């Protein structure tokens, strides 16, 4: 790879110079023959096809977008376009497919463009950000017009260089996908181990109410009346308590009487649980491990302070089990896809509590898998950052590759 002599972007054409946009796709098949079918939900936010469905030709021959092998799909409607939805068509039944009418089709002109190069181009940040600004239509129904793609300014290297650029960027994609698969397998392993262990616990130890092993503390209301010496204190809100981690990027403050603040101060080891959340995550807990930072918690966030006989890490893992999920869903008040629990239900949560040495053994066992998962996830984030930078350089012409 070599650098050009200036940082300027070398746009020397537009997409329409090397590709057809929404070309006609003639298909001559018997009505009963099978073809591939692609709904929007079967594309990922990284611009790839997750899976293709199968349909009889007669079922989809009218009213759907047609595309062929090696075509590039770009979602046209908001928010699918902004989210990166799209894909590269390959492995199609009979070489053809049908899909959502909310796809634009980009087809490489033979001898001028490499299809993979065009695919990476449509996934690039510059393409997506520019497309957002070109959308037309009313709110909720805004779409990227076909002319935006046709007239999008690009750097057009020789065809062999296009192929080399696509090879480099696809190689990084493969590494990212492998890491994602590893993380998914490790996450599944953690869940499987947690399920197995909690099942053994229920068979070996009699469950007792959580309130017998911990103090369940309610938080401070944002608009509660205060008198006396008022101070500003940061506090954990529902938005800060995510599934498995604390989001400390935006911690708001609350005015509170200095004397009252002591009642709501978090202590290292407190397990924070939102009173409401997604149906499949209500009741999940995350541990507050800050030793220096003084912080309160909102009245919609419970703080569970464990006794000496219960490890916070053990409780947090138990709260991720299907035993916990089933309990909280059974007693939760549900609204659409959300559910809420109260302090009485949390206090009554049945938990088997083995000796501390067994709790520690379980925590350490899960921690080894979790640490490996986090390490791979960190590597994946680095690869994604590298892909973004390399893609920008190669697709703009700031850096060239030798072939």
Q: What layout of secondary structure does this protein have?
A:
Layout: E1 2-3, E2 13-14, E3 19-21, E4 34-38, E5 53-56, H1 57-60, E6 65-68, E7 72-75, E8 86-88, E9 96-99, E10 103-108, H2 115-123, H3 125-134, H4 146-150, E11 153-154, H5 159-204, E12 208-209, E13 214-217, E14 230-236, E15 241-242, E16 245-246, E17 253-257, H6 258-264, E18 271-274, E19 276-278, E20 286-287, E21 296-297, E22 301-306, H7 312-318, H8 322-331, E23 333-335, E24 338-340, H9 343-347, E25 350-351, H10 356-396, E26 399-400
Parallel strand pairs: 4-9, 14-21
Antiparallel strand pairs: 1-26, 2-11, 3-10, 4-5, 6-9, 7-8, 7-10, 12-25, 13-22, 14-17, 15-16, 18-20, 18-22, 19-24, 23-24
Helix pairs in contact: 2-5, 5-10
Describe the fold and architecture.
Helix 2 crosses helix 5 (159-204) and helix 5 packs antiparallel against helix 10. A hairpin with a 2-residue loop joins strand 15 and strand 16 (245-246). It is built from 10 helices and 26 strands. It has 3 domains: 2-156, Adenine-n6-DNA-methyltransferase TaqI, Chain A, domain 2, CATH 3.90.220; 159-183 and 193-204 and 356-403; 206-353, DNA methylase specificity domains (Adenine-n6-DNA-methyltransferase TaqI, Chain A, domain 2, Alpha-Beta Complex). It is α+β, with helices and mostly antiparallel strands and 403 residues long. The longest helix is centred in the middle third of the chain and has 46 residues, at 159-204. A 4-stranded antiparallel beta sheet has the order 3-10-7-8. The protein has a 4-stranded mixed beta sheet with strand order 5-4-9-6. The protein is elongated and about 75 Å long.
């Amino acid at each position: 790879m070599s650098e050009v002599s200036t940082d300027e972007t070398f746009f020397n054409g537009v997409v329409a110079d090397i590709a057809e946009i929404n070309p006609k796709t003639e298909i001559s098949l018997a009505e009963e023959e099978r073809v591939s079918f692609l709904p929007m939900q079967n594309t990922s936010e990284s611009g790839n096809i997750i899976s293709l469905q199968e349909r009889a030709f007669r079922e989809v021959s009218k009213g759907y977008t047609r595309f062929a092998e090696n075509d590039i799909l770009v979602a046209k409607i908001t928010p699918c376009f902004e989210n990166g939805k799209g894909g590269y068509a390959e492995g199609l039944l009979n070489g053809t497919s049908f899909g959502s009418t909310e796809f634009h089709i980009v087809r490489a002109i033979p001898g001028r463009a490499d299809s993979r190069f065009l695919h990476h181009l449509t996934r690039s940040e510059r393409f997506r950000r520019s497309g957002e600004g070109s959308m037309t239509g009313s709110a909720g129904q805004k779409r990227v017009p076909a002319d935006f793609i046709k007239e999008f300014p690009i750097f057009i290297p020789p065809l062999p260089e296009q192929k080399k650029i696509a090879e480099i960027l696809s190689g990084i994609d493969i590494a990212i996908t492998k890491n994602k698969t590893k993380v998914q397998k490790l996450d599944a392993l953690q869940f499987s181990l947690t399920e197995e262990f909690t099942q053994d616990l229920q068979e070996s130890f009699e469950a007792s109410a959580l309130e017998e092993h911990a103090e369940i503390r309610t938080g401070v209301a944002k608009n509660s009346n205060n008198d006396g010496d008022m101070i500003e204190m940061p506090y954990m809100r529902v938005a800060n308590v995510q599934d498995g981690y604390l989001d400390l990027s935006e911690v708001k403050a609350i005015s509170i009487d200095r004397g009252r603040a002591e009642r709501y101060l978090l202590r290292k080891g407190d397990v924070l649980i939102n009173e409401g959340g997604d149906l499949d995550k209500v009741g999940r807990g995350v541990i507050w491990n800050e030793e220096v930072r003084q912080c309160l918690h909102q009245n919609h966030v419970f703080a569970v302070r464990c006794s000496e006989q219960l490890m916070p890490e053990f409780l947090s893992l138990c709260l991720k089990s299907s035993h916990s999920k089933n309990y909280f869903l059974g007693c939760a008040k549900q609204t659409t896809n959300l559910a809420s629990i109260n302090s009485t239900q949390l206090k009554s949560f049945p938990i088997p509590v083995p000796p501390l040495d067994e709790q520690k053994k379980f925590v350490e066992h899960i921690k080894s898998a979790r640490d490996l998962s986090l390490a791979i996830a960190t590597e994946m984030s680095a690869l994604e950052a590298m892909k973004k930078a390399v893609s920008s350089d190669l697709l703009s012409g700031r850096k060239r590759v030798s072939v």
